[in-house]
Amino acid sequence: MNLVNGKSSSSISIFDRGFLYGDSIFETILVINKKPNNLNLHLKRIKSGCLSLKIKNLNYSLLSKYINKALINEKNCVLNINITRGTAKKRGYNIKFCPLRPNIILTTSKIPKFPASYKTNGIKTKFSSMKLSNSPNLSKIKHSNRLEQIIATNEITKNFPELILCDQKNYIIEGISSNIFFIKKNIFYTPMIHENGVDGVMKSLIIKILKKNNYQVLEKEIKKEEVKNYDGAFFCNSVRLIWNIKSIEKLKYKENKFIKNIIELVNNEIYK
User: Fold this and answer.
1) Fewer beta carbons within 10 angstroms: which end of the chain, N or C?
2) CB 165 within 8 A of CB 122
3) What whole-number distance in Å separates Cα of residue 68 and Cα of residue 83?
4) Residue 87 per-residue DSSP state
């Protein structure tokens, strides 16, 4: 189902700020048995994103109502939420040209299917040639300006279904559409994203689950050449959940019991 401000539609105005300038935020949510997973975390990130981008007057009661309407005939799907600044009165960057009401765009789609081996045996990955620009004012926000990630997908192949993105100084930031964790012994590490990158909902959930199960989790700067210092790694996002990493370019990781454990813990949380 496609909804624009609660009405069945697949069209928006050509003067919508999200269309014109990527002046919007978005969320991608896995829905299982009619339940949007981690909805509170996604809504929290929407509020944080709107605050950071100064998108005002979003009606959260209406948003919740529209979410229920979008899922009325759905059981298992992916729900996309796009919040744009609204339909502009005329072209130009100036926010003053905008109305008081943001546009709420909801779409549902089938859950994409991937080989089960991506979670168990793991995937091969490598570093993308695309380097992320430093943008501390926009870091952590799930905004709609994703050209760097879009360009990076040109390097995705069947053998490398997800790639690692670094910043201009070769610090690891994330995957193209995922966050990344590394493990050394029984301690989990994830890159700091204070200058770029997205603060993923699945990443937040995994950190919560790890701490609940008495694992230590550290956020730190990780250089590209430091991947050899770890015992294993995995990608995560809200739809794919966890993809184990079996190799990064020529570096091969052995099977890791702690990663297998976190995959089981996350599956139990999502499908409970």
Assistant:
1) C
2) no
3) 16
4) B
Q: CA nearest 148: which of 109, 181, 170, 174? A: 174
What sign for the dihedral angle of Cα 223, 221, 165, 137? negative
Question: How do strand 241-248 and strand 187-191 relate by DSSP bridges?
Answer: unpaired
107, β-bridge pairs:
2, 80
pLDDT in tens, 235-261: 999 999 999 999 999 999 999 999 999
Q: What is the CA radius of gyration of the chain?
A: 19
Instruction: Quick: pLDDT tens for 165-193.
Output: 999 999 999 999 999 999 999 999 999 99
3-state DSSP helix/strand/coil percent for the chain, to nearest 5? Answer: 30, 30, 40
SS3 (DSSP) at 229? helix
Return the CATH architecture of domain 2-109. 2-Layer Sandwich (3.30)
Q: Is 173 helix (H, G, I), strand (E, B) or coil?
A: strand
pTM for the full predicted model: 0.95
End-to-end CA distance of the chain: 26
Q: Dihedral of CA 47/200/188/128: which sign?
A: negative
CATH node for 116-270: 3.20.10.10
What confidence category does residue 152 fall into, taking pLDDT thresholds of 50, 70 and 90?
Answer: very high
And the tokens for 61?
A: 């009661």
Q: How many CA atoms lie within 13 A of 45 on its CB side?
A: 25
What are the domain boundaries of the chain? 2-109, 116-270
